[in-house]
Amino acid sequence: MLLQWLEFWSNNTDGLLHSELIQKITFRASLASITAFLVTLLLGPIAIRILRHYCPERISSQSPHLQKISQSKQSTPTMGGLFMLIAIAFALILCGQLLNRFVQLAAFLITGLGIIGAVDDWIKLKGHRNGLSIRNKLFAELLIIIPVAFFLYQHLTSIHGSLPLVIPFVSKVYDLGILFFPLSIIVLLASCNAVNLTDGLDGLAGGCLIFSGAGLGAITYFAGHHELADYLSIPYFPGAGELSILLSAMVGAVLGFLWFNCYPAQVFMGDTGSLPLGGLLGMVAVATRQEILLVILGGVFVIETASVVIQVCCYRWKKRRIFLCAPLHHHFQFKGWHETKIVVRFWIAAALLAILSVASLKIR
Predict the structure, then answer these.
(1) How many CB atoms are closer than 10 A to CB 155?
(2) Measured on CA atoms in the order 209, 267, 32, 114, is the torsion positive or negative?
(3) Which of 45, 272, 301, 362 could form an SS bridge with 117, CB 3.0 to 4.6 Å?
(4) What is the DSSP string of 127-192?
(5) Is 337 helix (H, G, I), strand (E, B) or coil?
(6) C-alpha–C-alpha distance, residues 48 and 55, integer Å
(7) Mean pLDDT of the chain
(8) Do the Cβ atoms of 236 and 230 come closer than 8 Å?
(9) Is the pLDDT of residue 1 over 70?
């Protein structure tokens, strides 16, 4: 990381940086978050001007009412996830241990899903409304997710000897064994696509990502700290704490992105941002054995996805709709709620779920 070079320079010039400070994950996580936030703010105006020219959003919906209420977003630039990912990468290079296996797998996952999201966005922008077909998109995601799940399985078994499944509010831990592999694939697929489905209103997915990322970042720090992991009775994985630096960078970058994405949005993150950031949440949860807790922590994303599944299943089965429109945030739009009211109330729910998730670690 660049901080090691800065440490060398500081020690040879009587500077203020010291080895003890640089090695602290809390310091590097804070610095990564601030760095990603500032880089996103600096890149934002330049990126938006470029994206406005090449990547104007095409609003097209099968619902005439949804088309009408979303018409004001027509031609808003999309693919804003690009400058968020650049900011996260810069913060990671500055503050992260790049030789850490967890970090390497997360970087591979973010890069791969970011490319898939960018291709999907680009196809939509070029006139193909639906982008990649569902089959092709899932296949591409699996090409990235399966290797990550496999190498996570190898790495976790090598440093822990078992693959415990932690269930919130329950003291007993179950060893998954080989079942870890299919479960991790399902979690990674679900998490990246759940965030993608939630990204439908200005600032909605971004705000929820901040709360989920911050809560999961704290849990990840605990899992990589032997004393805290023992105190909280959660599995300890040496090196997992480095993922909290990546999550801190994500939180900082999304905070910077919200500067431009809050209502009325100047830019959308698109699949370019939602897929990799959702995938990162899933991968960190799998790496720290908190897949079940992620259902609570990312409850807003889960409910949004569930609303789509329920709507589709009920319509195919009984030819009737449960919600006025799915995902759930559109249901409230159809009921006449203003967009900002929906977004802020979903943020509140995400914040409460993050607090509950962290608190649950000691309630067993």
Answers:
(1) 17
(2) positive
(3) 272
(4) T-TT-S-HHHHHHHHHHHHHHHHHHHHHHHHHHHSS-EEE-TT---EEE-GGGHHHHHHHHHHHHH
(5) coil
(6) 9
(7) 89
(8) yes
(9) no
Strand boundaries in the chain, DSSP class E: 164-166, 173-175
- Counted domains in the chain: 1
Domain-located, residue 343: yes
Strand partners, 77: 56
Residue with tokens 């104007």: 56
Helix (H, G, I), strand (E, B) or coil at 96: coil
Query: What are the structure tokens assigned to 192, written together?
Result: 């990246």
pLDDT in tens, 206-224: 999 999 999 999 999 999 9
Residues constituting the chain: 364
In a domain, 124, yes or no: yes
Q: Which residues contact 52 (CB under 8 A, 6 or more apart)?
A: 75, 77
> Is 227 a member of any domain?
yes
Fill in the amino acid letter for 10: S
The total of other beta-carbon atoms located within 10 Å of residue 309's CB is: 11
C-alpha 6, offset from chain centre: 30
Helix axes 180-198, 299-318, angle to 10 degrees: 90
214 lies in some domain: yes
Q: Which two tokens mark 26?
A: 């809390």
d(CA 201, CA 91): 27
130, amino acid identity: N
CB 25 within 8 A of CB 241: yes
